[in-house]
């Protein structure tokens, strides 16, 4: 018999046996991945169960037994239970049927009713409690859970990709292999009869299609690698805790899935109407080109941008608007699109470059600076994600003039182009008017700025602009979002808090402005390490770091959040204070008496709504509690990691009810980068043990990097590097 060739004939006989044998092996590999994943998930669930039981027990112990009557609509008699000391739902829930029946006046029916009602309440409570993992109070049960989760997190997005593909493949292949079985021999085909033989040949053809598709997608290799990852030995406790600190969002996302404590679906989907939500849910996001796993609300955001095509994503700061945009670009790239454009303020351009490269397989092409025309031509030729600034965009050919139609245009900090008469707005329109998919990103709540939103949406969906009126904003955020749902999606912290870690860190990389670089070169030439560290703020009028700090404070103000700004240098805080103007609290410094420091913090805490507190990191990092702040800005990296750790802990501690966002301002190709490179080479496990010890908390100098030659080494490296660039 013949193997199918260019004519597409269905293989039979030996060719069919080989095809079906290969397909059987592929299905077996897929089934193995599913089994390995199931075992890893069940191990994590087993570790999670006692923690949930403990939380549920604590909650039930505070619920009076009278609530059982509410569940049974008053049909349950509780007098005998209460007289016997069963005064809480937890006490009843922990009892057995036999135990309750021993109570005078409690019969079998009452005992069963009481236990059933307590079980209903316990089930409801279990859906609301959430396990939190605190690195400073790591108990044995939480550590066991973390080690179990580490196996799944370590595999990264490949685990989810492999499991999804394996489910689809086994569902498709296994019944086909049964139907195609007669095609393995002529005798079996004869015995199958004409109809059975026809079904077998059709199944063989479908098996061939499925196996060719699997080969094209490299599924056999993916399944094998993921099985290896899932079967690796467990991580050490210290390794698991260190990994958790580095990527806690991924652990909390997985934990939410396992515990069923994911946020309310309507809230996580921004309260968009059912018709739109259904359309978005039905779309499958292709994550082939992604390097990270998305949380549920982030996946919805990326799919919303793709299905609605021209939208504003207005999630509150810290919820990952950038990664949602990158996920949308990655999906389009996996489907064959080659060119994408990101327009953003100069202050976040380097962050976009890093994020695109770190979170996807897409190529980031910076198009700015003196060589932007050459970079643009290279992007036009080779494709990738062109990242440019508002000010550079107008110097480049626009959409039609460039000969390129990007798969998507992303505009970050889109409120910068709210005035259509400005040069930057016209430059953006030159691209967005001729692009099918456009994504505007802004953390500014549009329901507070209806006119601003109308201006933005007019460029995206002109037909919606007349439907948006000021009364929608007055009616409240949910009413506004429903009115503008086809083109606007926003989720607040409380909407998705169940999936968020309690601490979100972001390194804000900036490139020196020409004046910044001049000041930095002078500092390097002087050989003064501390001067090098604060050189980024030496020219306030053109400081890239200071400009980014202003933007972060402005976004926090728009969201009514309090901010604490830390710097090692009193001089830098003075520059920040002058840049932010009146109404700033502090600075808290070593020269301020302790009582006065507390007065400043108390005044900051009592301030209604947004406020900013400035503090030297040495003075504010120990002793003061700043729970009112949910945004922390570090003006520069610290030589001693524990100094940063303790400063952040002033805001991120018991009593803090909001997620804390930490923004560390860093200058690329500078002392900041050299310092982080050196610190990163130190033993992370030693640091993990040391920072959790009582000794470390009391005497941070004992465990911090204290290389006496550190400053001299960095100065010499920078002097050599800058000399070589001349």
TrEMBL record:
Q: Which UniProt keywords apply?
A: ATP-binding, Helicase, Hydrolase, Nucleotide-binding
- In the record, what terms sit under GO molecular function? helicase activity; hydrolase activity
What domain of life is recorded for the organism? Answer: Bacteria
| InterPro entries given in the database record | Helicase_ATP-bd (IPR014001), Helicase_C-like (IPR001650), P-loop_NTPase (IPR027417), SNF2-like_sf (IPR038718), SNF2/RAD54-like_C (IPR049730), SNF2_N (IPR000330)
The residue ranges of the Helicase C-terminal domain are 548-701
Its top-level enzyme class, in one word, is hydrolase
UniProt EC number:
3.6.4.-
Q: What positions does the domain Helicase ATP-binding occupy?
A: 302-463
Q: What is this protein called?
A: DEAD/DEAH box helicase
Origin organism is Streptomyces argenteolus
């Amino acid at each position: 018999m013949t193997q199918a060739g260019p004519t597409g004939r269905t293989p039979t006989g030996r060719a069919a046996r080989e095809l079906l044998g290969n397909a059987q092996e592929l299905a077996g590999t897929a089934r193995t991945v599913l089994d390995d994943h199931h075992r890893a998930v069940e191990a994590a669930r087993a570790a999670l169960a006692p923690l949930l039981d403990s939380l549920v027990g604590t909650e039930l112990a505070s619920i009076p037994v009278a609530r059982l009557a509410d569940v049974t609509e008053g049909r349950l008699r509780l007098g005998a239970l209460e007289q016997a000391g069963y005064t809480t739902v937890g006490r009843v829930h922990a009892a057995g049927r036999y135990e309750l029946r021993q109570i005078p006046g409690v019969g079998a029916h009452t005992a069963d009713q009481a236990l059933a009602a307590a079980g209903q309440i316990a089930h409801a409570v279990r859906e609301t409690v959430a396990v939190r993992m605190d690195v400073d109070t790591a108990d044995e049960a939480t550590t066991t859970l973390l080690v179990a989760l580490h196996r799944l997190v370590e595999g990264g997005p490949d685990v989810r990709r492999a499991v999804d593909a394996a489910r689809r493949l086994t569902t498709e292949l296994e019944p086909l292999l049964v139907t195609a079985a007669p095609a393995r021999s002529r005798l079996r085909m004869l015995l199958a009869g004409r109809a059975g033989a026809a079904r077998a040949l059709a199944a063989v053809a479908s098996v061939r299609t499925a196996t060719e598709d699997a080969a094209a997608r490299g599924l056999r290799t993916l399944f094998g690698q993921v099985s290896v990852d899932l079967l690796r030995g467990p991580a050490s406790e210290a390794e698991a805790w260190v990994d958790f600190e580095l990527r806690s969002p991924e652990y909390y996302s997985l934990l939410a899935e396992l515990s069923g404590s994911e946020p309310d679906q309507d809230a996580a989907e921004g309260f968009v109407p059912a018709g739109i939500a259904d359309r978005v849910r039905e779309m499958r996001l292709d994550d082939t080109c992604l390097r990270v796993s998305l949380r549920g609300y982030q996946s919805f955001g990326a799919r919303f941008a793709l299905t609605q095509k021209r939208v504003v994503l207005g999630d509150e700061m810290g919820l990952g608007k950038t990664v949602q945009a990158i996920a949308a670009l990655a999906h389009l790239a996996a489907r064959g699109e080659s060119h994408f454009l990101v327009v953003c303020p100069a202050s976040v351009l380097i962050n976009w470059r890093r994020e695109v490269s770190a979170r996807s397989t897409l190529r980031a092409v910076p198009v700015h600076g003196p060589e932007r025309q050459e970079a643009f031509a290279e992007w036009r030729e080779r494709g990738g994600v062109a990242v440019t600034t508002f000010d550079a965009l107008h110097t480049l050919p626009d959409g039609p003039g460039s000969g390129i139609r990007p798969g998507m245009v992303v505009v970050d900090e889109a409120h910068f182009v709210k005035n259509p008469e400005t040069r930057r707005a016209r430059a953006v329109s030159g691209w967005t008017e001729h692009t099918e998919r456009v994504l505007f990103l802004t953390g500014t709540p549009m329901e507070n700025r209806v006119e601003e939103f109308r201006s933005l949406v007019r460029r995206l969906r002109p037909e919606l602009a007349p439907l948006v009126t000021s009364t929608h904003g007055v009616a409240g955020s949910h009413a506004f979002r429903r009115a503008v749902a086809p083109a606007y999606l926003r989720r607040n912290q409380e909407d998705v808090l169940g999936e968020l870690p309690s601490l979100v860190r972001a390194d804000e990389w900036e490139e020196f402005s020409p004046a910044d670089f001049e000041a930095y070169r002078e500092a390097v030439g002087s050989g003064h390490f501390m001067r090098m560290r604060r050189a980024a703020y030496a020219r306030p009028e053109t400081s890239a770091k200071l400009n980014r700090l202003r933007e972060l404070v402005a976004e926090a103000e728009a969201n009514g959040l309090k901010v604490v700004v830390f710097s090692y240098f009193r001089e830098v805080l003075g520059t920040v204070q002058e840049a932010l103007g009146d109404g700033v609290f502090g600075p808290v410094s070593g020269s301020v008496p302790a009582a006065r420091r507390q007065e400043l913090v108390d005044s900051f805490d009592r301030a209604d709504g947004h406020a900013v507190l400035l503090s030297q990191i040495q003075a504010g990092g120990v002793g003061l509690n700043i729970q009112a702040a949910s945004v922390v800005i570090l003006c520069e990296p610290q030589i001693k990691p524990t100094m940063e750790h303790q400063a952040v802990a002033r805001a991120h501690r018991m009593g803090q009810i909001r997620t804390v966002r930490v923004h560390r301002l860093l200058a690329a190709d500078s002392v900041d980068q050299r310092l982080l490179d050196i610190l990163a080479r130190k033993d992370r496990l030693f640091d993990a043990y040391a920072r959790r010890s009582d000794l470390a908390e009391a005497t941070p100098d004992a465990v911090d990097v204290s290389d006496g030659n550190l400053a001299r080494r960095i100065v010499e490296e920078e002097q050599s590097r800058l000399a070589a660039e001349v």
